[in-house]
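Teaching note: in complex prediction, the entire set of molecules is handled at once rather than each chain in isolation. The prompt given to students was simply: 'Predict the structure of this complex.' The entities are:
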Amino acid sequence: ETGVTQTPRHLVMGMTNKKSLKCEQHLGHNAMYWYKQSAKKPLELMFVYNFKEQTENNSVPSRFSPECPNSSHLFLHLHTLQPEDSALYLCASSQGPVAGGSSYEQYFGPGTRLTVT
Amino acid sequence: AQKITQTQPGMFVQEKEAVTLDCTYDTSDQSYGLFWYKQPSSGEMIFLIYQGSYDEQNATEGRYSLNFQKARKSANLVISASQLGDSAMYFCAMREQPRGNQFYFGTGTSLTVIP
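The expected output is the structure of the full assembly:
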């Protein structure tokens, strides 16, 4: 596998279910991200991890719980979601901030299309 | 205030013609990076091109070029010789050096290439 992979690609879950999204990067990056993409809205940054440490949490509801066991893996644990949480969830990785590091682009996975019923 | 503004929700271009997608940004930092991504209907975001705030020349990558006007805070993407496979959503993004892990994205422009 190369690049950034995400599983599952599609997920349908009820509001009382618990599920997890998985992301894996094979690029040797040290920063990983979760984004939410809803129709007609900018990408919403949810969480950022740098060297396994969470550095950003953009006021995300507690029903979304991230986990980063190492620099290559990132999970998003979901529980008691709402229908408005239905969206495309994108994972990305990049080199973390270093001196002159604004040039490092993000590499994205294919996303998980989540539908909450 | 919006960090990245893309004012064109949808654009059409004839195959083989050039098209410009607009992007303006807002930052008070001196050091930042600007990016363009393509998102086909499959959903994956594909990195296209990068421009650094200190770069004096406009970035180019194949058929993609970035028209960088720093004083106007604009970073327009120019696609030359459009192809049917260019039909997709295009997103402009910015990374500010002092907050290096934060990327800001615009709302995107949907480009349709007409045969």
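Point out the following to students. The radius of gyration of chain A is 14 Å. The interface with chain B takes residues 31, 33, 40-43, 45, 48, 50, 55-56, 88, 90, 92, 96-98, 100-111, 113 of chain A (CB under 8 Å).
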